Amino acid sequence: KLCPIHKKPVELLKEENYFFKLSEYGPKLLEFYAANPGFIQPESARNEVVNFVEQGLQDLSISRSTFDWGVPVPWDDKHVIYVWVDALLNYATAVGYGANQEKFDGTFPANVHL
Question: Check: CATH 3.30.200.20 for 17-60?
Answer without folding.
Answer: no
